[in-house]
Structures
1.
Amino acid sequence: VLEDLEWFVIDNLPCSLIPKIGELAQDAAGHDRYALVVDIRAGRFIDELDPALRALEAMGANTRILFLDASDDVLVRRYEDTRRRHPLSEGT
């Protein structure tokens, strides 16, 4: 949806790269709205999210956190449709 609204969206971005995107955005012509997706796939690196957001704010970026949630049934069906193993599933 955000891409349809002409946002520049980056999915599964490592938290440590968020400040770099902020730097690049300052120099980029034509894009002024970015959506950076961070989720459970970040694993233990999720601890880097708060410092990364603070770095963006120090650059003058206006940040918002949008938390999306779905039922387990919807998530399982989504992953079954893509035939990918869910990031939190056990085993191989």
Note: The beta strands are 8-10, 34-36.
2.
Amino acid sequence: MIFEIACVGILLTMFLALARGVIGPTVYDRILGVNMFGTMTVVLIGVLGFMSGRPEFLDIALVYALMNFIAIIAVLKYRDLT
């Protein structure tokens, strides 16, 4: 029961992060919103893996976190070049 409530809370936070990414007044607010969305996705994958008893979901979450980190660094580096 508590994990379902946690998943709903995480999904709500993901929605708010996505809203920040869409309506952010600056580019950096949008990047922050997308980064937060990616972080909450990692947390959601971890909670769902724990709920279903599948520890390999944590490996997937770690790979997704690494891809999210590299993508955000690349976007920020490209943003500084323009």
Note: Residues 58 and 65 are 10 Å apart (CA to CA).
